[in-house]
Amino acid sequence: MALRVTFLGTAGAIPTTERNPSSVFVAREGEGLLFDAGEGTQRQMMRFGTGFSVSHLFVTHLHGDHVLGIPGLLQTMAFNDREEPLAIHTPHGTRQQLKSLVNALGNRPSFPVRISEVGGGDVAYRAEEYEVRAFETDHDTRSVGYALVEDDRKGRFDRERAEELGVPVGPKFSKLHEGEPVELEDGTVVDPEQVVGDPRPGRSIVYTGDTRPAEATIAAADGPDLLIHDATFADDRADRATDTAHSTARQAAEIANRAGADRLALMHLSSRYAGRTEDHERQAREVFAGDADDVFVPQDGQYLEIPYPDDDEQ
């Protein structure tokens, strides 16, 4: 089951010629989820081929570089004759501000837009096989991060063992894999535990938005496959990071270690580093516990396919 992350905008508050303001698109088996929508997000979606089939938009906070793309995106959706509702999730206490932004052009969108407030610990969206959880972040305004966490998958089905136990090939295999015992013709009962292994973990992605290093990020998911973390500054502006409620690349890597993240994407780079990402990557790699290649500053338009932890999609 495909899970793809596309980095639409990776800049800090001020865009550069190479980087758009913050936005990340996640596609999971045909469903589109958007995390933040900085100015120009609609163009980035066209440019990098994500399409506009977004069912949920998750807003980390209401600073302009994370939300000013919303009015234009909604207008484009309306021009494309969208009828499906769009759910927008925003931190507690910001619904009215976001509603004003949605209606900034003086008229309501031609399709339903539903705005809900979320706080740390809330499940913002529960789908059939995964959920998106909000967690507390440490910025200079009301803010949250989001973690997409898939449910555990069924354990592996041991067909060879099932046949050894006399289970005939067919519907009884499926019942066992679904957790139901089956009775054989001779009256023997075969339990699922005899032929099905332990549940296997799903995948998870954590997106912090803007934040100082925060304990809640560590607990947001158990060993995320990908942590997308604020890394606005390098070590040369560590004091500035603290003062402005952001993180350095090194701090992001320290959080990644404590969270057990497999990969770390360094986001929201200040425009003072335009065209220069070497220091961010070097400083993060100096402390990151995993493979150095798994720490990176994504380029706009870069995408990642997130595999299952055991590289098995069954």
TrEMBL record:
InterPro entries from the UniProt entry: Metallo-B-lactamas (IPR001279), RibonucZ/Hydroxyglut_hydro (IPR036866), RNase_Z/BN (IPR013471)
Keyword tRNA processing: yes
Task of the protein: Zinc phosphodiesterase, which displays some tRNA 3'-processing endonuclease activity. Probably involved in tRNA maturation, by removing a 3'-trailer from precursor tRNA.
Protein name: Ribonuclease Z
Catalyzed reaction equations: Endonucleolytic cleavage of RNA, removing extra 3' nucleotides from tRNA precursor, generating 3' termini of tRNAs. A 3'-hydroxy group is left at the tRNA terminus and a 5'-phosphoryl group is left at the trailer molecule
SUPFAM superfamilies membership: Metallo-hydrolase/oxidoreductase
Any one Pfam family match given in the protein's UniProt record, by short name: Anti-Pycsar_Apyc1
Species this chain originates from: Natrinema versiforme
UniProt: Zn(2+) 2 binding residues: 65-66, 210, 268
The protein's Enzyme Commission number: 3.1.26.11
SMART domains linked to this entry: Lactamase_B (SM00849)
The record's free-text note on cofactor binding: Binds 2 Zn(2+) ions.
Superkingdom in the source lineage: Archaea
Entry keyword annotation includes Nuclease: yes
Keyword vocabulary terms for this entry: Endonuclease, Hydrolase, Metal-binding, Nuclease, tRNA processing, Zinc
